[in-house]
């Protein structure tokens, strides 16, 4: 320990102080009336009953199980059978040939007209050149 | 003879006798420390009484990772600050020598007690750090906890305090300069 530290320690020891009997009694009397804050070993007051968490967990599990059972029961019931439908009767039968004819008829007519015009034009040309 | 840990546990269970045993060895030292921080002897005694009452009241908040003395000194520092009258805020201020409680308790000596010089030169916290280090032999960590300061603050200010006192001892420094 260095010189300064030694001197500080020695000088602190020169400060002679002791607690008087009167102060000692005063402190002892004061301590008797003091209530400790947050006494050790005393369980903290709970905001809920001790079995609350168990009870709530079991209730939750029971509710979940009930929901699962209900869903399964509903799935087990036979779904109502759909009435067989005569598709042929419902869906109109399309006369594809007739429809094709209806769709291509005008074009066919046009083609025939054009061919007729070509033939007339050929005959006229032959007549003109004297064949 | 019960250990300090056993006494703490008994006091936490509500035994005032165990608490009295626990603090018996600290009372005189605490009073001596409080004399350096209070304006009058009566204030220091009141501060000691409040310290011990608060320590007992809140002993269940005591963290066993700390030394018990460190926790006790922290309470003492807080109580001294509450009791100190507003017109004697700085320890460095000159007081009436007859009423100075520290001066009254210092035995006669050829040289001035270095703690009187320290009280004039240093500010409150640096003085407390120096006292806890050199009078109470506390570690830097314990001083930091007692003063609620960082370890680096404590190291730096212990060094500053030492330099200031060294200079004061050697007469090469203006003693009215406050450090910290």
Most extensive interface, residues per chain?
A-B, 29 and 41 residues
Radius of gyration of chain A: 57 Å
Major sheet details of chain B: none
**Residue ranges of chain B: pLDDT <50 for 5 or more in a row?**
173-180
CATH class of the largest domain in chain B: Mainly Alpha
Shape of chain A: elongated
Structural class based on helices, strands and sheet pairing of chain A: mainly alpha
Q: Spell out the CATH superfamily of the largest domain in chain B.
A: RNA polymerase sigma factor, region 2, helix turn helix motif
- Domain count of chain B: 2
* SSE sequence of chain A, one letter per element: HHHHH
As for the CATH topology of the largest domain in chain B, it is Rna Polymerase Sigma Factor, Chain: A
> In total, how many beta strands of chain B?
0
Strand segment tally of chain A: 0
CATH architecture of the largest domain in chain B: Orthogonal Bundle
Helical fraction of chain B: 55-70%
> Strand content of the residues of chain B, in percent?
under 5%
- Mean pLDDT of chain B comes to 84
Helix content range of the residues of chain A, please? 55-70%
Q: What is the percentage of strand-forming residues of chain A?
A: under 5%
Compute the number of helices of chain B: 9
